[in-house]
Design brief:
mainly alpha; Retinoid X Receptor; 12 helices; DNA binding; Nucl_hrmn_rcpt_lig-bd
Amino acid sequence: MQCDRSEDRHPHAILFNILNRKDSCGLGHDNWDYSGMHNCHCEQRKLVCLRNSASTCQAASEVLVKTIHFMKSLPSFHHLPCIDQLLLLQSCWAPLFVLGLAQEHMVFEVTDIPTASILRNLLLNHQKRTNEQETDDSPTTLQAVHNLNSCLNKLWSLDLTAKEYAYLKGAILFNPDVSGLMSCKHIEGLQKESQRVLHEVIQTLHPNDHGRFTCVLLTASSLRTVAQSFVTELFFRPVIGQTDLLELLTEILFS
């Protein structure tokens, strides 16, 4: 597989232009307020969507562009075989995105999806599963939103510094357990190095908190419970429609 880094390729979705902008605007977080949710099981299964879709999707896109640019900025990632870069992108973009949400202190409101929209989504999802035999189906339920919010709250409670975020992202990105990697041993070494430096940073910043390193890694592992399909549906489907988000991210990564 060859890397296509030419800028002559033109994805046909608005999100590509948002993500590929080099003058990403800053993310203010004072305009979002995460609304309280009910604990009833029926409520947890409700389908929801973003209340302020336009502004929240824009802010989420800004977080995602920073995530992809972070990956592109790492020489150790850039020098991996292109197939390994693609596999790591496919596996890790969602937890890295959630880390970005936490680092930017981004919160949001959701609201019930209107009945007409629910029927439309059911028809679209049925057609998509029929055509593509899709197995990674994670609807935007209140329960899924609660899970995302729980992950964010755990990260916020740790009050991570920029250095801690950076090396934690490296430890998540360089995942040797991803199937099909050509440079598995090398990537394992990169992950261990990221974890080693993260441990050193934590020891320097928090010398008396001996359990912090373990707590940070456990919190990071919980990010895997946030499904890629859920993140896509909640934050990006209103912008990209039925376009494949991973294809857009791949275009940006190799542009």
